[in-house]
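Need tokens for this chain, all 533 residues.
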Amino acid sequence: MSMTAQATRSERRQMVRAAALLMVGTLLSRLLGLAREQVNATLFGTGDAIAAFTIADNVQTLLFDLLISGMLQAALVPVLSAYTAPEQRAELRRIVGALLTLAFFVVGAAVLVLEAGAPLVVAVMTGLGGGAAARGVQTVALTVQLVRWILPATLLLAWATILMGTLYALDRFARPALALATRNAAIVVAALLLGHTLGVRSLVLGTLAGALLLTLVQLGGLRDLLPRPNLGFGHPAIRRVLRLYVPIFLGLIANTAAVILDRNLAWGVSEDALGAMRYATALNQMVLGLVAAATSLAALPQLARHFTAGDELAYQRTLGLGLKLVGLLIFPATLGLAAIGWPAVTLIYFHGATDLAGAHAIWVALLGYLPGTLCAAFDQVVIFAFYARQNTRTPVIVGVLAVGIYLVTALLLVHPLGMLGLVLANSAQFIGHLIIIGWLLHRELGSIGDPTTWPAIGRAALAAVIMAAVVFVVTIGLRLVRAPESAGLSWRLLTVGVPVVIGALVYWIGLRLLQVEEAQLLVAALRARLLNR
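Here are the structure tokens for all 533 residues:
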């Protein structure tokens, strides 16, 4: 075997192992996130209380996204990857310390401004949807209070993101993979211990505790490179990070406007809309985070290094592998979830304060989100392919166009379809984004991936379609015996567990028959990671 072939196989194994580790960590995090939303649905249902928390959580998330979140993949990892050689570690330490200091000043100032203007912020988020007239003065007052409580978490999350980007650049995936689970665990514990006495305020306390834990866990992964705060904002790396992030920031302004409109419309369209959309999103985010985020983040450092080295063949191989791994997982995940959607919703959410109408709203939202979830998985890899080439402008322009698709679709569909119109507009946004940005990447590279990429994705899709058809038939058969919404917990578990086991078996047989090699690599990597070998 030639040295080039050996290097290629080694790189493939390294990327698959990294993706497997991130998948294990993401799976744990998403399961806890799903448990968090299950607890929320049981304690608070889909009505005004969870709507108030959702708006407050959205305010914190929007601020975080605007100021720091998009920087992780677009700027931090690509730039910091150039300073990971042993002789450059001291310089990397100074860069990270300066970034943490800069975040303290910028994010901290933004938090203080929004704390003072919390009533205005809530009015902006809910006024078009009727504000107090739609849900009452008490609900609006609660929302303002929750906004003020939750905002400090943004600074902690900003620090955690910078530390996480440093670990990714160093190819240290373990702590970032597992740390997000601690954040969700903190929220679950806070809700269970304090939910009956503090109501949705307990979720804010859990969010703050989780953000602190997330920061501390990342910091522990840099004990040998412990950053020290400094004012070295003029370092070329920091200037490069900021230059790369400026287009992202401008694009996120458009996305923020879309989210604000979406929250306003959902606030007034129905009592269950915000809660149902939140809980359905948790299911979709579990799928998307497990599949796309893990694979994309595993590929990003290698893509960035190949681009820096000018090795386009290696870049295409890595990009193709990332797309194949995403296809291998996202097709069965989304098609399978569509087939067992109602049993899954009744099992997870139809408890306590969530009644049958609320559960049905969650199911409708879930089905509406799934086409967008499928496209968003591939979309993340393509976006990261541009980021690795230190091109943040193209994804931003496409993002603005996609926001336009959302706005037009939402305004056309919200009145005839209500909540479903907003959900379908979200899917239309992701579908449009993938089509446009995929065409642009193909135009820039001449092709996307290596010659094996698209045949492998097609075979995975075929196996997933067959699997979903089998799962749907099994689900219908079980429903004829007894409807899950009228059954106890054991039957609900059965109506989800049996189709999942049968579907996994059918899909695996299909992959083996169709000779999808990446499936065996991924299973071997996951088995080794789970067994700590």
